[in-house]
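The instructor's notes for this session suggest beginning with a concrete chain rather than abstract definitions. Hand out the sequence below and ask the class to guess, before any prediction is shown, which regions might be ordered.
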Amino acid sequence: MEEHQYQQAAIRFAARGLPRLVNASAVERLAWHQEQGHEVLLASSSLEAYLTPLASAIGADGVLATRIEIQAGVLSGRVLGENCYGPVKVTRLIERVGALDDIDLYAYGDSTGDRELLAAAQHALFRGFRDRGYSVKAIMKLVLALVSP
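After discussion, reveal the predicted structure:
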């Protein structure tokens, strides 16, 4: 597939498919983090191409996600670097913000791929949005809020 076709498909998916997956309880929490002036990132093993438009739509500051390799304008069929899962989420976060010792980290997760990120956070919530009666499959479950000291 050509890169522009992939990007257009990702934008369509983000616009049509993702809104129904967005967790209302998590959106409320996202708004709280934004009111506090926190930097908010989405961290997911899902594809960066469709999470980026979602992040933009909800006002998140960025995305840490799995990237697809593109060569000469065509998808190669391979992941660029590593899948953003487990310890890779922490590595990508450090690459983005620097040492985690210097920030007050909030992390929200619901799967084994979130363990390391939750362990690195001072404020970790595992499956907390499910407790409020919302679907665990929500994309917004993986909001990270970073607070400078």
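Then share the key points. Residues 131-142 have pLDDT under 50 and may be disordered. The chain has one domain: 3-147.
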